[in-house]
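Deliverable D4.2, example record:
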Amino acid sequence: MIKRTKPIARAGLIAALYVVLSLVTFSVASGAIQFRLSEGLTLLALIFPEAPVALLVGCALINLITGCALYDVIFGSLITFVAGVLTFFAGKLLKKTAARIIAGGIFPVLLNAFLLPLIWYFCYGELEYAYYLQVLFLLASEGASVYVFGTIFYLAIKRLREKNIDFLL
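Output generated by the structure prediction step:
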């Protein structure tokens, strides 16, 4: 029973953490230019197979809470889910920590940067900034979130697991 409960509880924690981190950085976590610190959690898919679903739920919840258009809630969350799944498989294929982080992080960075502006155009009409400018902003902000915050969080969880410190880890 515990083997089934632990991943579900962990997924709930990841989803909740996604929402909380987005709320803490609310003023910059949504909009045409956004810095969503919570996107760094996608690197948890390198460790936990339940992370992609948790990220989907967390992203959908914060998009609903912040009043995003329905298509933005659905497709924006699906982008995070797909990025999490691809990150998970990168973690399965690669064994070296640096390679896992670099390869796993590329999916959320690129998918969000190139696809979110298209979703925003469809949902909200005219782009506030030119498509390529938004892509550049998202590449920078998503890259910082994933490769700075995500790496710190990933390495901290990895070390705790190596020391057998087990609180849903």
